[in-house]
Records
---
Amino acid sequence: MIGYGFMGAAHSQGWRVAPRFFDLPSSPTMQVLVGRDAEGVASAAAKWGWAESSTDWREVVARDDIDIIDIVTPGESHAAIAIAALEAGKHVLCEKPLANTVAEAEAMAFAARRATSAGMQSMVGFTYRRVPATALARHLVASGRIGTVRQVRGSYLQDWLIDAEAPLTWRLQKERAGSGSLGDIGAHAIDLAEYITGLQLTAVSGVLETVVNERPLLGTGVGLSGTASIDRGQVTVDDVALFTGRFEDPKGGAGALASFEATRFATGRKNSLRIEVFGSLGAVAFDLERMNELEFYDATLPPLEQGFRTILVTEHDHPYLAPWWPPGHMLGYEHGFSNQVHDFVNAIATGEPPRPSFDDGLHLQQVLRAVERSSESDSAWQPVS
Ligand code: SOE
């Protein structure tokens, strides 16, 4: 695994726990954790259960005893690492969003297509597809229980940047993260809306806004001038992304409209990823802050009985639940990462390319670019291409 930040901790838990709950066709070994700071990565490796640590990802990617490369670094290094790993014959799991630009995503998708033909699997880490309630929502839509999709709402609301003095971390720097709320959390809302509806966005219109334009640099207690001033840096990404989208229409019509919000300034909303899909026969609604529940509305019931009802998605018939707990005992944020390991290791064993693929990641990158282009052109509609 390359990287050892927040996703390093989450993915490590997935690799460590999945083999102990799922009957995997082969059991992954947590061999090497890679990071830039030798001391930091060695202590993380010991803490999370990796056999070795290294500061040289190129050396690790070239090793014959390594089969899988899991990339959990900021977006700036996804392309270099993923392409080198695929060309070295490794299976690759890469965190979202796939890349910082469409050009990088195109190169990664090209390398992945070539590697797939050689039996190497690659997947993008949109783990909210691995939450039982979202997989159930997809099943209900795919089986026609809400009829034709008429309208979709997607939002991802957080509030960790409300404090204007919160430091300038890598997520606030375009050259490191590619974009701000749009690609970091808006990407999840887009991917989940497309996953649940089974439809792809074809055009978008939106606006991006940076609310706080400069922040204290990390770790600056004394300014460069030697005084006790705090060095400050420019925020070069969006804080708020608001956009509408048009879905494809399999029947050749106009396609359903969607509205999306992604923000780190929604005071009080800590991690509220919400998707609502409204259809001709019903609706489904999911909120990550209530991740074991799915709201379902069945408009085919007798009028007196109609109303949103809450499905507690903890039955063993529900996706991913069987290896975990008895009904009603709930799953958490971390289970999505073990469910992801299950899906990826099975894809490697069966040779069946997993979703989301790098091509799915490229499409998503094109949606992000279309929103950026729209915001730069007075919110004019832009095609996703
Ligand atoms: C942002 O704070 C963040 O960590 C995203 O980067 C993750 O993708 C999301 O799952 C949780 O919030």
---
Amino acid sequence: MSKTFYITTPIYYVNARPHIGHAYTTIACDTIARRQRMMGFDTYFLTGTDEHGQKIERAAQAAGKTPQQLTTEVSAEFRALWDRLGLTYDDFIRTTSERHKQGVQALWRKIRDNGHIYKGHYTGQYCVFDELYVDAVGPGAPCPECGRPTETVREENYFFKLSAFQDRLLRLYTEQPDFIRPEARRNEVISFVRSGLRDLSISRSTFSWGIPVPDDPKHVIYVWLDALANYITALGYGSDNTGLFDKFWPANLQMIGKEIVRFHCVYWPAFLMVAGLPLPQRILAHGWLLFEENKMSKSRGNIVRAETIVDVLGADALRYFLLREVVFGQDGSFSFDALVQRYNADLANGLGNLASRTLTMITRYFRGEVPYPSRASSRKASDDAIAQTASKLINEYNSLFEDRQFSRALEAAWGLVANVDKYIVENEPWALGEKQDEDSRARLATVLYTCAEALRIVTALAHPVIPEATARIWGQLGLGEIKKHPLADLRWGQLRLGTKLGKIEPVFPRADKSAIEKMQTAEDQGRSAAAAATQDAPSVAPIAIQAVGPPAASATTPDGRISIDDFAKVELRVGQVKIAEKVKGADKLLRLEVDLGTEMRQVVAGIAEAYTPESLIGRKVVIVANLAPRKLRGLESNGMIVAASPEGGKPVLCSFLEDVPVGTRLK
Ligand code: MSP
């Protein structure tokens, strides 16, 4: 029986369109899954979407859609992107699917029947953005995780007896020291659990977008219990007995971003323990992809879409960049400049060039057949040095990869590419090719065999990372289907003499400066189009005066009045200013980051003469939330702050005497 390997990504929230942050995790898992398959493991790779909860319900409301519509649409976008990127997932789970619902309810019953659920009253703060109960005091108190204002929840809830798990969890972290990777995350979790665990509220009754609690449908199951269960419901737990659960559970590797470590390393093992199920072997947390110094996220509006990169440079370029440039486990920055630089240096000038030089010369000098490395007399120390480096590389690469040090593994592999480049320059095969004497021919054969064999080895090792290009190089080497190549048996000297090469074509054409511009423009257009698609431009004059931007189109009836429908087109919401700063070179403008409850908005407002930035932080304001974005001083303004503008006076911000929750709509 073959060895099995089960790997999972987190399931992605569908309140946001997929971006390269999501792609990062999924690509890393795809790379591991591909490699495991080449290593002979019977591999199962799961991904999917997380579709319940208050955050999704509100996002749907804000988009004027039903939650069903929004979740179906966005989930399909994730799936289409994964397909476009050629990701080899075996299953894509949606938490709104029937099989998942059945599985979650079965898990609930199991936990309940084992005596770990009780009913109680919860009063406290809840962060809708993180879908997390937090230790914060008072209405609107900031969430300790993300800083957004929390909401007060007073409800009758079901509770999970998490407090009973402190010792068992600490024992788990000691007995299975690799359960949480990397070490820094493990230490964080240990100190969190050591500081004491409180019981966890695991149901909500104030909204309905979720899976009903068995036998008490007034409650829906807490979205994190619902979501975490996907890793087993996808294998048929609690629904179909497909055999997958018995075959693949427990997971070998569950990959997550660092912000969801607590859910996966504390709650998840506790739920599994009560249900009497084995625990995953490893939870591996990676860092964040940053764009312009900040975590890439929809709420910051600083996302980059994978499609943009795929259109211009191809999926392999994105995959290679993410795994080579970012030290896995740490945060890493993304920029188009760095992407193109890496692409040209390592892929176009590196592997691509090595493949085309080597294969073209074999075609020219040996009629497209891999030549025999000749007699001992034609051998030089530099040939053996390449062979030794390649053999060493195979072991080094494998162990770095096992350790998920992708960047170092690729660096090592490209070290061989650089060595072979140098070897080619030193041995001048083109000069040897001009000579017809036997010694020169023998020497040329040895040199080109050495190059081709090194190329084959790098290509096989890199296949899980850059599958498309390596499959093409493999074909050009005349070697059939690369993914079927047993990686565990890879050795120097396996390239068969006389192998007939395939058709030689460039795999990584060089990218010039226009590639950066193209991607930049596509991103700018994509953002504007997305904003326009989700926002009905108001057809009426703004209710109050905003210092930025011209008033919108005029009223619709002869006497200047508008209908209620016209008014309803303007989405006014309460927001809270989180960041305020002056805009360089513009006396009147402030750049604000405003929390709208479901997202963070950048707004540029002409109120600098009336308000200092400090006086605005924490202040609640009214925002026209569905205004098409516009650029001011190079900054995108995504909404308008409502203010009264007395004739000749300074603008006065609209505010409330009572406390109003962030995100509330004004009607
Ligand atoms: N739905 C929950 C997870 C439930 S798992 C049972 C969730 N979803 S999420 O869409 O907000 O983010 C999920 C994951 O996407 C992160 O943990 C991370 O793996 C990936 N990323 C999202 N943005 C990212 C970056 N900017 N950088 C790196 N990874 C990012 O949390």
